[in-house]
Prior knowledge:
The protein is an alpha/beta fold. Helix content is 50%, strand content 13%. The chain has 3 domains: 2-91, Rossmann fold (3-Layer(aba) Sandwich), CATH 3.40.50; 92-125, 2-Layer Sandwich (Double Stranded RNA Binding Domain); 127-191. The protein is built from 9 helices and 6 strands. The strands form 3 sheets. Strands 1-2 form a two-stranded parallel sheet. Strands 3-4 form a two-stranded parallel sheet. Strands 5-6 form a two-stranded antiparallel ribbon. Helix 5 (127-141) crosses helix 8. It is elongated, with a radius of gyration of 22 Å.
Amino acid sequence: MAAAKLLPLAEAGAEVVVVAPHVQPELVASAVVHRRPYFGPQDLAGAFLVVAATADAQVNARVAADAEALATFCVRVDRDTDATAPGSAALAAAVRHGPLTIAVSTGGQAPSLARWLRAELEEAYGPEYGQLAALLGELRRDARVRRHLASLDSEGRRAAWRAIPLPDILRLIRKGSPLDARELALACLSSSSD
């Protein structure tokens, strides 16, 4: 549970410090700092966000109370089983594929619903959507595209991006033809004019 909450934070560039007797290998591989085995209030010094993710509700409660005393945001993972568990923050359940992130949050009111919706989104929006987002990002940085779009007014630029047939591009990506997808998108952008 802790790894699922902390890995996205580490991947986003947060400095993550884990206070636990044992640390999951995937957390160690993500350059997460393992400070010490057992929690003490001093572990919260300088923290912006605390995730209380132990299997012990009493420890989670103590972490949350210490965080509250320092006016530090705290996410409690045991809110799923105890709706009265205090916490001052909630993390969105997210699907990540490359540059694409789709997130859902219930504001901590129904974590199991957020997890279910995340699974539904994962099924509906697979890795090919991340590839599509990456392709469009590449095109935005392409010097030829930038020169061409610079010759258009703002409405012309918006129209050029809207002219890209996203469902067709997605079909090509699904077929394993990313170069064809890129060429089609490039052709649509290039054919736009003032």
